[in-house]
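Consider the following input, taken from an annotated entry for Amidase (Siccirubricoccus soli).
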Amino acid sequence: MNAPVSSDLAELSMTEAADAFAAGDIKAEAMVRACLARIDAHDAKVNSVIRLDREAALAAAAAQDKARAGGTALGPLAGAPMMHKDMYYRAGKVSTCGSRIRKDFVPQVTATVLERLDAAGAIDMGTLNMAEFAQNPTGHNAHFGHCHNPWDLAYCTGGSSSGSGAGVAARFFTAALGSDTGGSIRLPATICGVTGLKATQTRVSRHGVMPLSFSCDNVGPLVRTARDAARFLKVTAGQDPKDPTSAPEDVPDYEAALTGDIKGLRIAVCESYFFDGADAPVVAAFEDALKVLADRGASITRVKAPSMQAVAAYVSLVSRTESPAIHANWMREYPGDYAIHLSSRIYGGFAIPGHLYIEALSRRGPLLKQFVAEALTGFDIVATPTLRTRVPTLAETDIDADPANWSRFMAVSANTRPFNYLGLPTLSVPCGFDDRGLPVGLQLAARPFAEATVLRAGDAFQRVTDWHRKSPVL
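Applying the prediction step yields:
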């Protein structure tokens, strides 16, 4: 069956666009022009784009149209326009990493994940705004300007993949790479009302990607649907000789696993930690999402969460220690080129004793084993709200303007950070709106390399709900 074709091509999801193109229902150039028209009309307000490669994208699309007309077989993402967080290196192109320090940096290598997307036919339209050096959960950026939530411009987008979340939500492109060290894919996904996947640590190569924390960084997509995420992951996952940390496990056909059938799927809801201080509209949307999953045949069981305080503390300790190791030379040479909150955070990292860092690393395996034993034994998935609270405004989380906002700023990633330390695959899908009209997200986590499980659950949920279909009025 041919993919549905929207009267506004920019409303098509990544898989819808690619499938419609493959079926001959749309032209790639028309798809790119529809996305460019939305960027031209609305990005001055949203501020998601750093570099727009307009002519290159149109040329690539025209070449795909010609190839398809000539009967050439093209990849599974041909016809799908994308843009990516400005920390994925492409040889010969500036990669700012959202910073003043790297505003003119031109890498000599191309990220493996970009090479794999290119080979699959994805049309790259340029790069996106992000938190400076990917180091905040809200998306503020003192150098390129803050990214604005397309649902309400006064609110934050989530970070650090701010432009990725905002741009996918605004229908500027069909998919975007983000990165996730403490929630930086899942937070902008939930806050902007799209789908975001953090795969198992090491599932996707990190070669050619700006590092933040060697132990917690993850590469992944922000897209419209779980089906989009499944196809994206199939294309990008797998061992890479350029990244010795990449996992050798075989890559399954994630999309083929999306049967819509979740009868017998066992879902644990870990009470206490993941709901501490949760806002009522968030909890209400989460509970409604659980009812949908139960109606589809999943079993829902409330369990006592294993102690997450050590996990939350250790993940912060690891990232705050590893980041200064990456930034040490720049901090000596260009300390004034960092935003105030970032330089103060990096300076603090230099004072963390080495034995505490080693302790945090050494406890990772035992705490993962404990979490699996206490939260996943007898279950397939752990479900939580992605963000405990209603979406905060940009002003409420601007710690450069007011350091008193620090607690609210850090609370944004309370439910996402633990899964980076534990290394578990985690999916966020939109599941409703709060009382102010801002999105709410459902977070699903599973055992290592069980991406197919969370994707199957997310897809089953999206087959009978339309939260992922809703788009902001700009």
